[in-house]
Amino acid sequence: MRRTLATVAAGLLLATAAPIDDAAADQLEDGRKIFALCAQCHGDNAGGNSLFLAPAIAGLGSWYIEAQLKVFRSGSRGLHPEDVAGMRMAPMARTLRTDEDLAAVAAYVASLPPTQPEREIDGGDPERGKTHYALCSSCHAVDGAGNPAMNAPGFKYASDWYLLSQMQKFRAGVRGANPANPIAAMMGPMSMVLPDEQALIDVVAHIMTLSK
Ligand code: HEC
Ligand code: HEC
To answer: What pLDDT does 5 receive?
Structure first.
């Protein structure tokens, strides 16, 4: 973010490069302060903690982090009565009172170096998962980097237990069934294409092999 702004500024008008860069630095500093709350569950390095059901969020794009904070805040993600993890996160998003605060913490998280969460799920067959992943790659990319134009997040640095939990929630209509969240609704049918629970575990095992 900071580099993009600086590059644009340099290209357009060198004289304004410094103030724009300062603004980006101020935003990151604001985000760093707000992140103290987030770190209680997601960890100081944003690498996640399965004991708190809090996923790794380092390595996600700021566009996706912002979008998810907004849907948690508005209540179109995380308020389903069976969504235990979502109900922990939704009130946290509501502490972000302004869009500026929300954008600042998203920019800060996106500026952190990605982590490599430990594998916690056994029993997946990455070869079988690779076959299933062919469909997924049309939105999430072959290498798992995601595609902002499709609103599809990257998950190269994701926690395996979290990916599995989200696939289970999409299948059960616990995530993605709120009509106010049409982007999440896209994943429901995609999760149903996988034949059974083992296929979910296999596809997650494949995602874990994607090069970092
Ligand atoms: C009380 C613990 C807790 C705190 C504090 C917390 N989170 Fe979360 N967060 C969670 C849990 C649990 C989930 C998983 C929700 C789910 O499974 O749907 C989550 C999910 C997320 C996601 C979605 C990740 C994805 O891949 O879709 C983002 C982004 C996020 N949190 C950012 C933040 C930010 C930013 C803050 C600070 C403002 C924060 N969280 C504070 C527990 C917490
Ligand atoms: C048509 C495009 C599309 C296809 C195909 C697709 N997805 Fe998605 N996926 C999305 C979008 C968009 C989101 C973001 C949903 C949201 O904003 O809540 C998403 C979210 C996810 C998430 C949640 C990630 C997170 O950080 O919370 C997982 C896991 C996932 N997809 C797995 C898969 C798998 C596995 C497949 C193949 C079986 C697949 N997707 C196929 C578009 C797609």
So the answer is: 55
Nearest ligand by distance to the CA of 38: 1
Quick: pLDDT tens for 153-195.
999 999 999 999 999 999 999 999 999 999 999 999 999 999 9
Tokens of 169: 């929630």
- Measured by CA distance, the residue closest to atom 18 of ligand 1 is 86
Long-range residue pairs from 115-119, CB within 8 A, at least 24 positions apart, any chain: 115/45, 115/46, 115/47, 115/48, 115/56, 115/58, 115/59, 115/157, 116/157, 116/212, 117/47, 117/48, 117/56, 117/157, 117/158, 117/159, 117/160, 119/160, 119/208
- Closest residue CA from atom 38 of ligand 2: 136
pLDDT tens-digit readout, 96-124: 999 999 999 999 999 999 999 999 999 99
Ligand 2 pocket, 150 CB below 6 A?
Answer: yes
Nearest residue (by CA) to ligand 2, atom 39, is 136
